[in-house]
Amino acid sequence: MIIRPMEPEDADSVVQIEKDSFTQPWSRQGFLDAMRLPENIMLVAQEDGEILGYQCTYVSFDEGELTNIAVKKSARGKGVGAHLIRCLQEKAKESGVERIVLEARVTNEAAISLYQKMGFVNLGIRKNLYEHPVEDGVIMSYTAEENLC
């Protein structure tokens, strides 16, 4: 499996994974627009020519916001998400990003557990953050300094 920058040619595969993963998926155009901003960190996990997962992080100055991360259902539980996050953390550091924040549904225990294993800490709960269904969101943050030995 390789992790590489997301390209416009990946949009159809990424959108399919997005639709299979979220109740309010981003559009193809949303991904293409995000790719046009060179400061953003947009990565895909690929194996044998197949896109297994992706992540999108918007970058503003020294902070990144992990807006989207998803793995194809058939590839879940195989370390794809962890590999994407590890590569994001490396690229963020190279780009001068000091902190990465994200939101997750409070019921998405698998994602929250993965984020914690990858060094993210819980900052709090945002009430009624999500729709379809209405649900609270947990806000998490990663700062490289928090994870020094």
How would you describe this protein?
The protein has 149 residues and is of the alpha+beta class. It has a single domain, classed as Gcn5-related N-acetyltransferase (GNAT) (Aminopeptidase, 3-Layer(aba) Sandwich), CATH 3.40.630.30. It has four helices and seven strands. The longest helix is centred in the middle third of the chain and has 15 residues, at 80-94. It is globular. The two termini are 29 Å apart.
The coarse silhouette is globular
Question: What percent of the residues sit in helical stretches (DSSP H or I)?
Answer: 25-40%
- Across the major sheet, the strand order is 1-2-3-4-5-7-6
Distance between the termini: 29 Å
Instruction: Work out the strand percent.
Output: 35-45%
Uncertain regions spanning at least 5 consecutive residues: none
What structural class is derived from the secondary structure elements?
Answer: alpha+beta
| Radius of gyration, in angstroms, nearest whole number | 15 Å
Mean pLDDT level: 93
Largest sheet: 7 strands, mixed
Under the CATH scheme, the architecture is: 3-Layer(aba) Sandwich
DSSP helical segment count = 4
Count of domains: 1
Q: The CATH topology, please?
A: Aminopeptidase
CATH level 4 superfamily: Gcn5-related N-acetyltransferase (GNAT)
Quaternary organisation of the protein chains:
single chain
Helix-strand pattern: EHHEEEHEHEE
CATH class: Alpha Beta
